[in-house]
Amino acid sequence: MENEKKLYEVIFEGNVTLFKTLINDDPLILDRISTTFFHESPLHVAVLRGHADMARELLSRNPGLVSELDSLGHSPLHLASAKGHVGIVRDLLRVGGHEACLARSKDGLVPLHVAIAKGGPFEVVEELVRACPESTWVRVDKGDLGLHLCVKFDNLGALKVIVKMVGENDGVDFLNARNDDGNTILHLAALYKNFEMIKYLLSIPGIEQNATNNNGHTSLDLIENSPRDLKSLEILNFLLQSNSQKSSKYSISKSHSSPNPQAKQNPIAHFRQRSKPSWKRFFTFDNTRLEQHKGALLIVVAIIAAATAVPIINMNVNGPDLTDHYSTFAITFVPASAIMVLLLSGFSLRNKFCVWIVLQLMYTSIGFLAMNFVGSMLSNESRGAIDALTLISVLILFGLLLMVSALNLIRLIVWVVTNIKAWVKKSKSRGKDVNGLQMSEISIQKMV
């Protein structure tokens, strides 16, 4: 037992000369080590200390040490991969081969998973993948492949190595592989808001941008459901532009028609508008169109305000009594003036609730302007001489105003209900995705 302790001390120090002396004095000492109660084999100690010469000497004298496991089920290759010792990894692979690459620890990790999680030199990942490409298909807890771990542990270098060495051969099935939650590597990159990872993934031809997970969410949905910050908005815009460009290329190849310039200027609005059925668009606020005609709207309300204010200002005290028209003139003038004040103060017409307010004020002003018109005709001496055509025209105008006002109210209700449902769904899905992601990350960190 004393010799075994001395052997471990020599290996710990990395003294190869003294090690050879001990072996010459006791040639069976390495064979007896397996029957002792040490938690690590001599090779484990040499690997942990980074003594490449000592590890090479141990392998030459007892190759079976490469398959020995410590108390956690880690082989020497697990430890060398975690420590990033490229030379020792090569020596261990030369002796252990495929079996060493596919050896699982008690937590179900193969050496490739450990190398990815620890974020060491990408050459270690390169050596492991070259020696055993099958290890990239080994799944850990939650069904994650090595690709998923690259995203979770922000190891872009390892991801590029695996995609280059394996993805080109195994194709889209490998690049779009899903874990138990149905998440692809693009889903995880979106959940972690890793912009550099997302840009790299979308540059790969085989990546499916619109793939859905078990909750029916694409990577774009996950970003939209996440808390809004500068990074998420930047990623959202990038994903929408990428989706829009792919859709435009597909549309051009199918119809040979020129792309919509408005979609280039505003890809977010174009993408969402294009995805809606025609009947739903009828009940949706088109805030972009009203924003584009902001100047014309200002001119119209200015004319209405002037048309109602001038008669009151120029009222002849000796003329007919206009007291009956004061209320209708006021109700016409006030909404028009309110719209002018809102527009001149920088009131945004991109907000849908603001659009509803402006439209409702406009309908009110036009309606009471029509009432002023009818009242003026009835106040004439020939009030009974209003022909049927004029009366029908006025009734049609009032009917049209009532219809568009009702439509405007329906649009508001639809907008409110849609936003409430989206908020509830977002809260539930965000909880499911984030909780599942956190549990997966915690379990992997425990494994490592």
UniProtKB/TrEMBL annotation:
Placement of ANK repeats on the sequence: 72-96, 181-203
Domain of life: Eukaryota
Compositionally biased spans, kind Low complexity: 249-258
Transmembrane domains' residue ranges: 295-314, 326-346, 353-374, 394-418
Keyword Cytoplasm among record annotations: no
Signal peptide: none
Stretches assigned to coiled coil: none
Ranges for region Disordered: 249-270
Alphabetical UniProt keywords: ANK repeat, Membrane, Transmembrane, Transmembrane helix
Keyword Transmembrane: yes
Xref: PROSITE patterns: ANK_REP_REGION (PS50297), ANK_REPEAT (PS50088)
Name the record gives this protein: PGG domain-containing protein
Native source organism of the sequence: Saponaria officinalis
Higher taxonomy: Eukaryota, Viridiplantae, Streptophyta, Embryophyta, Tracheophyta
